[in-house]
Amino acid sequence: MLDTEITPDGVAVLRLDNEQRRNCVSIAMRDAISDTLDRWAADERVRVVVLTGAGSTFCAGFDLKEFSQPELARTIRDTSRRYHLAVWGFAKPMIAAVNGAALGGGFDLALLCDIRIATPDATFAHPEIKFGAPPLFTPLQWIVGAGIARDLCLTGRKIDAVEAHRIGLVNTIADNVLDEAVATARVIAEAPQAALEATKRYLTSNAGVTFDEAFAVEHDRVFDEFLLGAFGSGPT
Fold this sequence. Notes:
Blueprint: E1 2-6, E2 11-16, H1 27-41, E3 48-53, E4 57-59, H2 64-67, H3 73-88, E5 94-98, E6 101-103, H4 105-111, E7 115-118, E8 123-125, H5 138-144, H6 146-155, E9 159-160, H7 161-166, E10 172-173, H8 177-188, H9 193-203, H10 211-231
Parallel strand pairs: 2-3, 3-5, 4-6, 5-7, 6-8, 7-10
Antiparallel strand pairs: 1-2, 8-9
Helix pairs in contact: 1-3, 3-10, 5-6
């Protein structure tokens, strides 16, 4: 489900490893990511994290099979909240090595990282809007601006790596995306850890609305109104 490695120079690689399901972030995958980041936050060996996917897909989003099971509604919501906040609030720099499609929740996962490096064939989209799931807007508009974010959230259209780079979503395009991401992580790790973590705290703050406040509207309320409202509260 997850493949992890910590190099001697402090670069931790976290690979989503469910290639048959296009590395979708199921309940179990979300919990595994959250648990790993919780451990790594306190692990002095970890300076910078590189997040990537196995095979030719970065992450195809949430496991839609789980959404067809009403009894999982509450668990889906709660694990989703914990996972998103664990990635966003992680105290150390994170780089997304986007090795293919980043769709729906996979798009969000890349957005919650500090830097995005993509292969030439990487794609990004919020197709979930087409089947009634409002996408997260705030992290996207922080990176590419409100106008472009509105376009991508409302249309669900797919963009390629070239367009993603042009609009500032992707920092670098590289054929060997993992090597490029690790090299960037090593440059970041040259700074003292205290400085990196202080800077990360600045990066996750916002003069207007905080991520937690935006997330309560864009995630929690969506689940309450769309998922839990449709299926009932589910087991508590």
